[in-house]
Amino acid sequence: MRKNVFKIIFIIVLMFLIKDLVIGILITYENKKEVESYYNNDTSFNYKSNLVLNIPSINLDLVVKKANGDFSNLDKNLVYYKRNYFHDKIIIFGHSGLGYGAFFNRLDELNKNDKAYLYKDKNKAIYEVTDTYYVSYKDVYILNNDEKGTLLLVTCKKNDKSLRLVVKLSLKSIKTLTK
């Protein structure tokens, strides 16, 4: 009897893991397709509000969408908070940890002077990592738009969900792309 209970529990856990794996693969595939649509000048890409974030040192190349009211689209995307103008402060949120949608899982591997590229419309903004620090999930001061030309990448600390990892990048230049 006990063996059967353990088998059933094992099968249920395995089914959940497989479901998460399949969902993760589908979400990653959809994101990659959307990134390709930007790079290929596809008219299906929402050039007015979507961005593409590329960080070569952690092999990240994803679409960033505007956060909806309750941030529920954060489960399937990187999202930016309120503004997406290069000369303002841009804040991008993403999940880390296990499971699907953990696009910022390697964010803690970034080092000072690493580069990040943010694409919007026909422009490429080049940012450089200047600082990395942790804040409490209750600290909202990072949302203030007082630092022009700053990009903040924010995610949960992997082993402590009460803390947020913040990677601060400074705008170095903006280039117009000729596609």
Topology at a glance:
Elements: H1 2-39, E1 51-55, E2 60-66, E3 78-80, E4 89-93, E5 115-120, E6 123-136, E7 150-157, E8 160-176
Parallel strand pairs: 2-3, 4-7
Antiparallel strand pairs: 1-2, 1-5, 3-4, 5-6, 6-8, 7-8
Q: How would you explain this protein's 3D organization?
A:
- 21% of the residues lie in helices and 36% in strands.
- With 179 residues, the chain is α+β, with helices and mostly antiparallel strands.
- The protein has an eight-stranded mixed beta barrel with strand order 1-2-3-4-7-8-6-5.
- A hairpin with an 8-residue loop joins strand 3 (78-80) and strand 4 (89-93).
- The longest helix has 38 residues, at 2-39.
- It comes from Candidatus Aphodocola excrementigallinarum.
- This is Sortase.
Number of strands: 8
Low-confidence spans? none
Strand order of the largest sheet: 1-2-3-4-7-8-6-5
By oligomeric state, this entry counts as single chain
What's the overall average pLDDT, rounded? 83
Please state the structural category: alpha+beta
Assigned CATH architecture: Beta Barrel
Residues in β-strands, percent: 35-45%
Q: What's the N-to-C terminus distance?
A: 66 Å
* CATH level-3 fold name: Sortase, Chain: A
Instruction: Characterize the overall form.
Output: globular
CATH class: Mainly Beta
SS field, number of helical segments: 1
**Helix content bin:** 10-25%
Organism: Candidatus Aphodocola excrementigallinarum
Protein name: Sortase
Keywords: Hydrolase, Membrane, Transmembrane, Transmembrane helix
InterPro entries: Sortase, Sortase_dom-sf
